Amino acid sequence: MRHAVAAALFALGYSDEAVFNAELVFGELLGNVVRHAGGRVEIRLDGEPNAVLHVLDEGSGFTRNPKLSDAWAEGGRGLALIEFLVDDFSVSHRPGGGAHARAVLRPTASPSSTGSSRRRRPWQP
User: Fold this and answer.
1) CA 101 from centroid of its chain's CA atoms
2) Pick from 3, 30, 70, 118: most CB atoms within 10 A?
């Protein structure tokens, strides 16, 4: 599935680094569903002008805490990482249960990029 998302983003003209970042976002959102929600998951990618990644689950839903976790905690930074890598991010409750995570993906590298001319290739297992 991650490869299908990457291929769709490349087809929309997303840069290598933007696709790499989108793969991180995708992996984090899907990992959260597996760890916290379980059950079925629906993944959608809407295009143009900027791609919007939707991850919908059938879990119990949750209330998002905007604060970062303790610096020594083993987890709790994923949603903050997602917010850093995308143009817009939200999580909402679905009618009937579950959560809907929506991330507007950047077509170019993050504004905080170092500006290095070295281009990273998308991560592949």
Assistant:
1) 8
2) 30
Give the model confidence (pLDDT) of 17-72 as tens digits.
999 999 999 999 998 888 888 788 899 999 878 899 999 998 877 766 666 666 66
DSSP secondary structure code for residue 13 in this structure: T
Report yes or no on 6 lying in a domain: yes
Phi and psi, residue 50, nearest 5°: -115, 140
Residues 6 or more apart in contact with residue 112 via CB below 8 angstroms: 84
Domain count, the chain: 1
Phi first, then psi: what are they for 35, rounded to 5°?
A: -75, -40
- State the burial class of residue 78 (Cβ atoms within 10 Å of its Cβ: 0-12, 13-18, 19+): middle
Print the domain residue range for 84. 2-105
